[in-house]
């Protein structure tokens, strides 16, 4: 079953020839796919959006990403770019005329990359514990997420976004997982960050109000339905 | 010249992740101070510079810390633009290098499992599968046969490949596993051997007997930890 977006994205336009050049192989509920969508939207890039049925992956996906066989894959002029953080950097480097997603200064870039690596490892791993773990592991996952949230709150400080005044790489990397935290409120009784990390919550609200994010993010219900489907498939092997 | 541009590397002599940074600094000709950390008794300075992971390597430049080896390598490349560039200029080629850099990470994690796992056979199977994929990927990346290696042109993948596989013979001696078979992975095997010939890289390889005795002790500690 392929989950389609709630509303038709504006980018699915064939008027612009450039759209033929950029294709995104995607899966709507995926936080990694969401990242790629947000980055493309921030840059105003037209693209063809192809959604995968993960239980029956397309020939195109297998050809474009034979190593990892997963989404997202950005196909630009027929050439594939895989892994969401690599895709965002590629987009930033090719469409470099406006709206930079990474800071220009090397030390700030290193900080951004470090935080994205942290999100990819720690935030993702602990989130999976909350989704998939038995009671005790789920509790451990929640404790870890609180610890990571406090760390991220410290890194954010009083800034609007992680990079300063401008929405960018780290914000894009984190916001789909912040979306998961919203689901975790009802799913796993994870609502500590409102009291413990108020700045992060304000950051989250700020991001969710951005056009590129609101049109790219799956709803919490779509996220939860995808989890149920995944668990059903996983249970059957 | 005062403390401006001072570069310090906090490391552990056998850590492959530290080696990556050491090689990058040497290849770029960047002078640096090396500080050996005792990982069983981490210094307050290390904990201050890397509070979240508490790991080496940490590169400190002008008193600002940079953590995670791949992040450090890109930082070095973007800050010291003289000398060989570690990553290609073209964005698509860069994305391929970044992709394989992340994949090499997975290969190294498989190697670590071989050093520590109870089911060594299963760990080896996983490793050889990933090595096959890596060999195949490198063949596609260098369809003319092998990467063109020159002293003035050492790049990110050269460094990562050398560090991942450079200590194979010592590892084979201790763990009895042939990590790099010239029949199974001819491109990578010849690539590593060519890199080991270059003086600038050779001098960073620790002496074999030191590596062997460290790995033997590591193996014994792992085995007794599992037995408990």
Please describe what this structure looks like:
The complex is a heterodimer of chains A (about 240) and B (about 230). Chain A is about 55% helix and about 5% strand. With about 240 residues, chain A is of the alpha+beta class. In chain A, strands 2-1-3-4 form a 4-stranded mixed β-sheet, covered by helices on one side. In chain A, helix 1 (about 30-45) packs parallel to helix 3 (about 85-95) and helix 4 packs antiparallel against helix 5. By secondary structure, chain B is an alpha+beta fold. Chain B has helices spanning about 15-25, 45-50, 70-80, 90-115, 120-140, 155-165, 170-175, 185-195, 200, 210-225; strands at about 5-10, 35, 60, 65. Chain B has a 4-stranded mixed β-sheet with strand order 2-1-3-4, covered by helices on one side. The radius of gyration of chain B is 18 Å and the shape is globular. The interface of A and B includes residues 79, 86, 94, 107 and 122 of A.
């Amino acid at each position: 079953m392929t989950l389609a977006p709630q509303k038709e994205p504006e980018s699915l336009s064939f008027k612009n020839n450039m759209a033929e050049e950029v294709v995104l192989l995607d899966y709507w509920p995926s936080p990694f796919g969401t990242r790629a969508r947000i980055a493309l939207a921030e840059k105003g890039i037209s693209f063809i959006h192809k959604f995968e049925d993960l239980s029956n992956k397309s020939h195109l996906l297998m050809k474009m990403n034979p190593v990892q066989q997963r989404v997202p894959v950005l196909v630009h002029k027929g050439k594939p770019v895989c892994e969401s953080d690599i895709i965002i950097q590629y987009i930033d480097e090719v469409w470099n005329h406006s709206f930079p997603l990474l800071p220009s200064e090397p030390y700030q870039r290193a900080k951004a990359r470090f935080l994205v690596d942290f999100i990819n490892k720690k935030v993702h791993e602990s989130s999976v514990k909350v989704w998939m773990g038995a009671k005790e592991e789920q509790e451990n996952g929640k404790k870890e997420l609180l610890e990571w949230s406090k760390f991220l709150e410290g890194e954010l400080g009083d800034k609007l976004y992680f990079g300063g005044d401008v929405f960018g790489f780290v914000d894009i990397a984190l916001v789909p997982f912040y979306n998961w935290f919203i689901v975790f409120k009802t799913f796993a009784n994870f609502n500590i960050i409102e009291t413990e990390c108020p700045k992060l919550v304000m950051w989250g609200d700020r991001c969710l109000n951005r056009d590129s994010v609101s049109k790219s993010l799956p709803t919490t219900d779509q996220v939860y339905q995808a989890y149920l489907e995944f668990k059903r498939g996983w249970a059957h092997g | 010249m005062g403390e401006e541009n001072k570069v310090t590397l906090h490391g552990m002599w056998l850590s492959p992740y530290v080696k990556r940074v050491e090689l990058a600094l040497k290849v770029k000709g960047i002078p640096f101070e090396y500080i050996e950390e005792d990982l069983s008794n981490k210094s307050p300075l290390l904990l201050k510079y890397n509070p979240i992971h508490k790991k080496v390597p940490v590169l400190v430049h002008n008193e600002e810390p940079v953590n995670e080896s791949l992040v450090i390598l890109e930082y070095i490349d973007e800050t010291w633009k003289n000398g060989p560039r570690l990553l290609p200029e073209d964005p698509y080629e860069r994305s391929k290098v970044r992709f394989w850099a992340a994949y090499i990470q997975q290969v190294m994690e498989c190697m670590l499992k071989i050093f520590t796992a109870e089911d060594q056979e299963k760990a080896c199977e996983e490793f050889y599968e990933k090595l096959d994929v890596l060999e195949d990927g490198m063949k596609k990346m260098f369809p003319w046969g092998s990467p063109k290696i020159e002293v003035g042109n050492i790049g990110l993948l050269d460094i990562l490949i050398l560090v991942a596989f450079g200590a194979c013979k010592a590892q084979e001696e201790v763990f009895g596993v042939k990590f790099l078979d010239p029949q199974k992975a001819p491109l990578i095997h010849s690539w590593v051997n060519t890199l080991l010939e270059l003086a600038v890289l050779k001098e960073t390889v620790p002496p074999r007997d030191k590596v062997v005795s460290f790995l033997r002790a590591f193996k014994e500690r792992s085995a007794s930890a599992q037995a408990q």
